[in-house]
Predict the 3D structure of the following.
Amino acid sequence: MELSITSLRDLVMLSLREPRAAARHLLDLGLGRDVLWTALALVVTLSAISFYLTNVTLTQEVMPTPEPPGGGLGPMFVQRMSPAIVTLMFFGNMVLLVFGLYWTGKVLGGVASLPDMILVLSWVQFLMLVLQVAQTVLMLLAPLVAALFTFAALIYLMWVFLVFLAEAEGFSNLPRAVIQVLLTLVGVSVGLGLILSLIGVSAQGAIANV
C-alpha cells in the first residue's frame, strides 16, 4: 500500500463515516508485528509531544489555572515532567491496553490476533492525535467552541473505537466490545494497583533498612 497524504486523509474520513469498513480495510493489509509496534510507538510519541506542548502553552495562555496548594496533578505538574517521561507513560498505558484487550477478547470468544489489536489501537490513537490538533487550533480561536467540540468528538471516537474493536474480534454487536473494554480497564487498574502497592512496600522496606 502506497501511503500518501491523500490516502491517509481518505482513510481518516472513511474511519469517521464507515468505521467498520475502514477497520476491515486496515486489517486486510496484513502488516507485520514489527511495523505495527513501530507505528504505535510513533503515534504515541507524537500524541505525547502534542499533549505536552498543549499543556505548556495553552493552559496558561488560554485558560490560566493556578497550581493547587502543595503541588498536585495540576497543569504545573505536567509542565515539570519532561516529554520523554510523558511519552513513556503514554506508551506504557498503550502496551497494557494492547495486551489487556487481546486477552479479554480471547475470554469473550474474539478472534483478533495481537497484531490486530496493535493496529486498532494505533489507528484510533492516530485519530485521537488529529482530534488533539483540531482542539488546539480551536482553543486558540474559540475556547468555548473547543470544549464543546472536544466533548462531542470524544464520544464519537469512542463509538468508532468500539466498532473497530468489534470488527477485529469478529463480534456481531457492540455490547460485547463494550464488555471487553470494561473488563480490560478493570484488569489494568487492578494490575497497576498491585504493582504500585508492591513498589510502595519495597520502598518502605528499603527506607526501614537504611
